[in-house]
Specification:
globular; seven-stranded mixed sheet; alpha+beta; 28 strands; disordered N terminus
């Protein structure tokens, strides 16, 4: 292959290449999974439990089956394969048989000719429940108090503790003797929802070979396929999945939702079946961020050097395992924060309750622990008489820092530089006019009683799957001629959830092969597994696979001799290569002390929040949310900025408004009327400072960028609110009554503790 064939191309790696779906989405022309239709299609719907814990004593579908327009009603008896599913542990029933363990658990399915017919049929299904005592307090679950959520656990264990992560590093007893100052704090994080705008939906089509083709919005096609095959009793070649338009994900589409149910109905009826949740059902139909209760103890010398951290994390996983085992591990790994701490004792617990199931959400456990550690560090700074940012700089992690898990950070670790960049940024001016004040859009304040606060936070988390997972991703690239012009086709199973992986794959091909025309084929299970679009891994992993396939093609072209790409393809015909990319090996942590080289890379992000607070009314205006982040290599700078802005927005939501309220196991606000997410009126200016420090092990030196902004944005805002109000504010989201001093999560500081 001649040098000429690799000439620089437009829209390659490092450029802000426009997204092919961008204009369609802005115009409202993009086809999401909820837009799918098929000839002869019927609708599917789910009957869900109204109780958090109950025994099913009667289930009669006779009346529903008699309703005109109903073509099928299915219960647990109609599941042909394994009756349970799950990402890590198959403990969640496809349809409940004897008991229900959370409000919203699926009990029966209906297929009918119209959504209204489905609704009427669901109402005709006769289910009698015997309510059982519900375990809703995660502390009771740890103590062994109350009923067992699972009498017989699928993982063979006993009790309500899903996993206990123990990390022991250094000598805590000696460290306590060395510490001049010790501070403790207890912090809570509410249950946050991913709140993606496109509810769960999909279309299942029965096939002539007895299999099924499913078009669905998801984050991991092959894991869905694996769980579906087990439940349907079919081999992988008969369960084919294709990614449909995804209206956001953020971890909430890692677990199965409509996939198995739609396929069951399609196979039973012999007709295409569409399932599409409304907003209320969506709140019950996917996992949420784990609510957390955390206790942190920090010891430091008088000059502000951290000596130790002792932390206890308790995550409520709800009724089923999902990814709770891994979420609590990730939260525990980074409970010391982005700091050099020589001694650590960390205990992390995830537990079963009869609350809604919790699992993956952007940040994956590190969000909770980052809020806890960053909150306690501000408390320590007050005790030491130091500026919070100065305390952080004195202890910032560097390359070579040994984590509490015993692993040394061998890549870039620019924690101090990120903080310095934020500290050097000028503060925004005071708000002007009524709209510049808290509650200004409603003209509730004209500046009286308004105080300004500034808060800093920094977060760190691992990129990719950790703990010994053999993570791999497959890509296939084909070169051919169309009208005498070279065209490249890229085929992976990487799920495009809005993060831009379709665009990045095309950028890599243009860079590696010098081809202008690149077609990214729809992601499906006809190509090898790409893994999940989660853990900030998909650009690294699928990007590495695409790069590897392109490099293999270049080698073949070079062996063919000299000539332009078009000339070589004209002489030798289309060329295709498939490549499987794998990152360096990681290892599990040991169960006793939590030591091991568990991670492939680390990502750092920092935020400085500036807030104005009406302390009389409890109203908050986030004026600015400046951020600095190491991205390794900005593959598409504009897309990177979009990811950082989006992650910061979700962090803002968790800080001041987003919470799924659960009382006695029942969700009280399953709607966007009562579950509040930030709007354009709530979002501040988000100045972004990108730092590009190439990672030594990744394609192009890139690093994951999607999750880190959610880590530090929440605690930065919470710290700014503490700075403005003088209150401890030990729980997020912070509510108006916490600021005014009438809420349980407020707390207060003495006058000499105010800054």
């Amino acid at each position: 292959m001649s040098t000429a064939t690799r000439a620089a191309t437009r829209d390659g790696v490092g450029t802000s290449t426009p997204r092919p779906d961008g204009r369609l989405k802005v115009r409202g022309d993009f086809a999401y999974s909820s837009d799918l239709r098929a000839e002869g299609m019927v609708w599917g719907a789910t009957l869900r439990s109204p109780h958090p814990s109950a025994r099913i004593v009667r289930l009669d579908t006779t009346a529903a089956l008699r309703l005109p327009g109903v073509v099928a009603v299915l219960t647990h008896e109609d599941v042909p394969g394994r009756p349970t599913y799950g990402m890590k542990v198959a403990d969640q029933p496809v349809l409940a048989s004897d008991v229900v363990r959370y409000q919203g658990e699926p009990v029966a399915l209906v297929a009918a000719d119209h959504p209204e017919t489905c609704r009427r049929a669901l109402a005709l299904i006769d289910v009698a429940y015997e309510e059982l005592p519900a375990l809703t307090d995660p502390e009771d679950a740890v103590r062994g108090v109350g009923p067992l959520v699972h009498e017989h656990r699928a993982d063979g264990k006993h009790g309500n503790v899903v996993r206990h992560v123990r990390i022991r590093h250094g000598d805590l007893a000696r460290a306590r003797r060395e510490a001049d100052v010790i501070v403790t704090g207890t912090y809570e994080v509410g249950m946050q929802d991913q709140a993606f705008l496109g509810p769960e939906s999909g279309l299942a089509l029965p096939a002539e070979d007895g299999g099924v083709d499913v078009y669905v919005s998801t984050q991991w096609l092959h894991d869905d396929q694996h769980q579906m095959c087990a439940a349907l009793g079919l081999p992988p070649e008969k369960v084919r999945l294709t990614l449909s338009g995804v209206g956001g994900a953020f971890g909430g589409r890692e677990d199965v939702s409509v996939q198995i149910h739609a396929a069951l109905l399609a196979l039973r009826t012999g007709r295409p079946v569409k399932m599409s949740y409304d907003r209320e059902e969506s709140f019950f139909g996917h996992v949420h961020r784990h609510p957390a209760r955390m206790r942190f103890e920090h010891g430091a010398t008088r000059d502000g050097k951290l000596v130790y951290v002792k932390a206890r994390l308790l995550f409520d996983g709800g009724a089923y395992t999902s990814t709770s085992q891994v979420v609590i591990a990730n939260g525990s790994y980074f409970a010391a924060g982005a700091y050099e701490v020589p001694h650590a004792e960390i205990d992390g617990f995830s537990v079963f309750t009869n609350n809604p199931p919790c699992g993956a959400m952007r940040g994956f456990g590190a969000v909770q622990s980052c809020y806890g550690v960053e909150s306690n560090l501000d408390k320590l700074a007050r005790e030491l008489g130091l500026e919070p940012v100065e305390l952080r700089l004195r202890n910032a992690m560097t390359t070579g820092t040994v984590l509490p898990t015993g692993q040394a950070v061998d890549g870039p670790a620019p924690a101090a530089e990120l903080l310095e960049r934020l500290r050097a940024r000028p503060l925004p001016p005071a708000g002007e006019g009524p709209f510049g004040n808290p509650g200004g859009l409603n003209n509730t304040s004209h500046g009286e009683g308004v105080r300004r606060g500034v808060g800093y936070a920094i977060g760190v988390k691992a990129i990719g799957f950790s703990g010994g997972v053999d993570d791999r991703s497959v890509a296939r690239v084909r070169l051919s001629l169309t009208g005498g012009e070279p065209v490249a086709e890229v085929h992976t199973a990487a799920a495009e959830c809005g993060q831009g992986i379709v665009t990045v794959q095309a950028q890599i091909v243009r860079t590696e092969l010098g081809v202008e025309r690149v077609v990214v084929l729809p992601a499906d299970t006809r190509v090898g597994d790409a893994g999940s679009s989660s853990a900030s891994r998909i650009t690294w992993m699928s990007g590495g696979a695409v790069q590897g396939a392109c490099q293999a093609l270049r080698e073949r072209l070079t062996a063919l001799g000299e000539g332009t790409l078009a000339e070589l393809l004209a002489a030798h015909g289309p060329l295709e290569e498939e490549y499987e990319y794998a990152h360096r090996r990681t290892h599990p942590i040991d169960a006793e002390r939590g030591q091991g080289d568990a991670h492939i890379a680390f990502a750092f992000a920092a935020h400085r929040a500036v807030v104005d607070v009406d302390t009389d009314l409890g109203l908050v205006k986030v004026v600015e949310l400046a951020t600095a982040q190491d991205v390794g290599k900005a593959m598409n700078p504009l897309a990177v900025e979009g990811q950082i802005e989006g992650g910061s927005a979700q962090g803002l939501g968790l800080a001041v408004m987003e919470e799924l309220r659960v009382e006695n196991g029942r969700v009280r606000n399953p709607s966007f009327t009562d579950y509040l997410i930030p709007t354009i009126a709530d979002m501040p200016h988000v100045p972004i400072d990108l730092l590009e420090l190439p990672h030594p092990d990744s394609p192009y030196g890139l690093n994951g960028v999607g999750e880190p902004p959610t880590l530090s944005s929440t605690p930065a805002i919470a710290n700014a609110l503490r700075d403005a109000t003088g209150r401890e504010l030990t729980r997020v989201p912070v509510r108006p009554e916490d600021i005014t001093g009438t809420g349980s999560g407020s707390g207060g500081l003495d006058d000499d503790e105010r800054r």
